[in-house]
Amino acid sequence: MSSSEKTPVTVLTGFLGAGKTTLVNHILTAHHGQRIAVVENEFGDVPIDNGLVVNTDEEIFEMSNGCCLCCTARTDLIDILRTLRARDRVDRVLIETSGMADPNPVAQTFFVDEEVSAHYALDAVVTLVDAKHVGTHLDRHTADGVGHQVVDQIAFADRIVLNKTDLVDAADIAALTERLRGINATAEVLTSSHADVDLTAILGVGAFDLAHTMAVDPGWQDEREHHHDPEVASVSVEFDGALDRAAFESWLSGLVGARGGDLYRLKGIVALDDHPRRFVLQGVHRMFELQPASAWRGEPRVSRAVFIGKGLDREELTSGLLGCAARGRVPAG
């Protein structure tokens, strides 16, 4: 098949909390008239991201096996792409990687598997960067694996989206842009707030140029041993019932105040004792928010949360969250 006949694939990467799921939702709700299949991969054993994606007619494939796509789960990606081929044709595939993923092996998938490469074309690797926190991670580049992962994601990008620019000033944006270009001089750098980016700048751009990639890194297809920072872990907590809102917010405030520097990401879908709707929990370092989502419609009210960070205490987080459980109050609705 010629490149124009193949299904284009966009790989969306970026460190924890950069805004990848927000961008996925922006893409899915835009008026582009395309059928898009979304493949999501989480770092953790309790699936959360699928619940954070807006309700659409697109197909969502989720892999949550505690491993990122750059490790053994890459075989699952190949299986999903083969499954897609056997179904009705889609116009585009969007792969949202784990925040811990190295995009290099993900990109390799479209060249090392003959069936995949025959029917899919890698259009671009798009890396989201958190303008508020990326400087801290880059400063720690030589100190721990987290900085290396952030640098790897930036270095391999065809497009870099400097997101959350509403949280920094113009001087910070200029300095960060120069820093990003120091890591990747060829990728176009876009800026956005709440991942509201011009989609024509990241989709259908044909930016992944294999000849250029090999010129920059001739050994990019070589198998490389990949390690996550051993101190970074994912702690998942799930239980039936609602949370006492006041107790939960107080506990979260104390947690991020004390451990925010090492708490890279927190996310969840929770039931609160004073409201009939689900609430989405999103947080990065010392920032978190709770936003109402869809209503519970007869199904069990289950609260799920995932904490990703360095040196996390599973027992402490589990007991702390369970200690916020509501005692018998059920909101109407």
- Rg result: 20 Å
Low-pLDDT residue intervals, each spanning 5 or more residues: 43-48, 52-59, 62-73, 329-333
Q: Helix/strand-derived class?
A: alpha/beta
CATH architecture verdict of the largest domain: 3-Layer(aba) Sandwich
Distance, first to last CA: 53 Å
Average pLDDT reading? 78
Give, in spatial order, the strands making up the sheet with the most strands.
Answer: 3-2-4-1-5-6-7
Name of the CATH first level of the largest domain = Alpha Beta
* Proportion of strand residues: 25-35%
Total E-strand runs: 12
Number of helical runs? 11
Could you describe the largest sheet, including whether it forms a barrel?
Answer: 7 strands, parallel
Q: Spell out the helices and strands N to C.
A: EHEHEHEHHEHHEHEHEHEEEEH
The CATH superfamily of the largest domain is: P-loop containing nucleotide triphosphate hydrolases
Q: Rough shape?
A: globular
What would the CATH topology of the largest domain be?
A: Rossmann fold
The figure for the number of domains is: 2
Give a verbal description of the structure.
The chain has two domains: 214 residues, Rossmann fold, CATH 3.40.50.300; 91 residues, Hypothetical Protein Yjia, Chain: A,domain 2 (2-Layer Sandwich). A hairpin with a 5-residue loop joins strand 9 and strand 10. The C terminus is likely disordered. It contains eleven helices and twelve strands. The radius of gyration is 20 Å and the shape is globular. The strands form two sheets. The chain has a seven-stranded parallel β-sheet, with helices on both faces. It has a five-stranded antiparallel β-sheet with strand order 8-12-9-10-11. The chain is α/β, with parallel strands linked by helices and 333 residues long.
